[in-house]
Known about the structure:
The protein is mostly helical. It folds into two domains: 14-120, CATH 3.90.1030.10; 142-183, no CATH class. The chain has helices at residues 14-31, 38-55, 60-70, 73-86, 120-131, 142-166, 171-183, and strands at 33-37, 95-102, 109-115. Strands 1-3-2 form a three-stranded antiparallel β-sheet. It is elongated.
Amino acid sequence: MRHGKKINHLGRTAPHRKAMLSNMAASLIINKRITTTVAKAKALRKYVEPLITRAKEDTTHSRRMVFSYLNDKQSVKMLFDEVAEKIAKRPGGYTRILKTGNRLGDNADMCIIELVDYNEFLLQDDSAAKTKTRRSRRGGSTKAKAEETVATKSEETAPAAETKEEAPKSEDSTSEESTDEKKD
C-alpha cells in the first residue's frame, strides 16, 4: 500500500530521478517548451515551479539555491534574467501541460509542457478575446437602437430623393417599354 507516498518514482532510483528532473527543468527553461510523457511532466511541474517562484527574488542566495537544483549556469542565468521578468506579476501556475496523444512505440501518454507566458499563439488569442465586445441575444440597449434608427432614417431620406429623380431615366423603364412593344 502507498499510504502517504506522494512522490511518483517514475521507475527510477532517487539519484537517476533527481538528475532527470534537473536536466528536464534546465531544458524547459532554455527552450520554453519540451515534449515528454504526462507522468514526467507532472513530476517536472512540481520540481520547476518552486524554482521559478524563487527566481522572482534575485539575490545571491536564491541563485545558489536554484543552481543546486539545476546544475546548469546557462539555465540559471536565463531563469533569473529573462523568465523572472515575464512572470513577476503571476502568483503561480507558471507551466501548462498540453496532451498530444499516445506514443507509437509503447502507447505512452505524451504531452507538451511549456512556460505559460511564452506561448505567442495563445497570448494572441487571449488579447483578441479581450478586445472583442460581447453581444447578447436579446438585443442591445434602447439608446443604441434609437441612435441606429435615427442614422438609418437620415441615410434613407437623402439617397431616396436622388433615386426618385433618376428613376424615369433608369434601364428598368426602357426594358418595360421594350416588353410592351413586343406584346403589341
